[in-house]
Write a structure and sequence with these properties.
Largest sheet: 12 strands, antiparallel
Structural class: alpha+beta
Strand order of the largest sheet: 1-2-3-4-5-6-7-8-9-10-11-12
Radius of gyration: 29 Å
Distance between the termini: 71 Å
Order of helices and strands: EHHHEEEEEEEEEEEHHH
Strand content: over 45%
Length: 303
């Protein structure tokens, strides 16, 4: 499928309007809003609506600025079921052409899965994610690697992809319980040799390991686990292990003391404020505190 550049602004507006009118999308964003516990008074969906309206206004103001050629390729298996695709966006800016490519592919063979996600921008930036895994009872076990595009700094041309990170996951899942999202299972990550970048102060590699499990104690879900960071260095290898028990505090254990002390001073009362300032003991303590903070009250008064 190809969408000519002249048709893209109108198509983009139709897509944005569809997003605004989609009740399913609204419900999904509101659900994320509740689970992430946004600050009181803020709304993830309202911010989304404002952003979309702003994009619509930009397209209406200057449609020519949004003339982008779109190419869409759909990959299917032997049974004609979609298994992936490639989306290409091309924009001509005066004499320069900018191209953005996004591709995804998922294959399955007898319970074994392979997934590829790739992103490229004008042979300048590129990321590739490749994983092989099995899935049982919604738990994922497998391995992955992430590669980035290498650039020849002499020619400015892309020379291919180089691995920057690899790792494994075992019985891993992101489990949604009420408002909370729990990463359960084992997850590891290991960087490539960092010292290849030429900085002698950098470690050789850095490794990360996460293990988490969900345990219910007295009716409260506890995410219990460890995070381990290993820094490989010829002279000073380092291992750090952090154990944690993350859980909500039951309402019955929350107590807030909001009573004022018996000798408080209401500074909105001018008479009470004047009495406070005339109290030598109080003013002495105030000046001592300001001095400890590095504030010279004499200089302040002169200014």
């Amino acid at each position: 499928m190809t969408v000519p550049a002249d048709d893209f602004p109108a198509m983009a507006k139709d897509i944005l309007v569809y997003l605004l009118e989609s009740q399913e999308l609204k419900l999904m964003i509101n659900a994320i809003d509740r689970s992430m516990e946004f600050a009181e008074g803020s709304s993830a969906y309202q911010e989304f609506v404002e952003e979309v309206n702003e994009m619509l206004a930009d397209i209406n103001a200057d449609p020519e600025e949004f003339q982008v050629e779109v190419h869409r390729i759909l990959y299917v298996d032997a049974k004609n079921n979609p298994v992936g695709g490639k989306l290409s966006l091309r924009k001509l800016d005066q004499a320069d052409e900018y191209e953005l490519n996004m591709a995804s592919l998922h294959a399955e063979d007898n319970g074994r899965h392979a997934q590829l996600i790739k992103f490229e921008a004008s042979d300048e930036v590129g990321l590739e994610y490749l994983s092989h895994y099995t899935r049982e009872n919604d738990l994922y076990t497998g391995e992955y690697k992430i590669s980035s595009m290498e650039i020849d700094w002499d020619t400015g041309m892309a020379t291919g992809y180089t691995e920057v990170l690899r790792g494994t996951f075992a019985n891993f899942v992101l489990k949604n319980e009420g408002k909370d999202l729990y990463p359960l299972g084992t997850f590891t990550a290991q960087s490539r040799s960092i010292d290849e970048y030429g900085d002698p102060g950098m470690p050789e590699t850095v490794s990360f390991k996460y293990q988490g499990k969900l345990d219910s104690q007295e009716g409260v879900d506890h995410l219990i686990g460890t995070m381990e960071i290993y820094v490989e260095d010829e002279y000073m290898p380092l291992t750090m292990i952090l154990g944690f028990d993350h859980h909500a505090i039951p309402d019955k254990n929350l107590t807030f003391h909001d009573e004022m002390v018996s000798d408080f001073v209401d500074i909105s009362d001018e008479y009470a404020l004047m009495e406070l300032m005339e109290d030598e003991t109080t003013m002495t303590k105030l000046f001592e505190t300001l001095a400890q903070l590095g504030i010279n009250i004499d200089e302040f008064m002169l200014d």
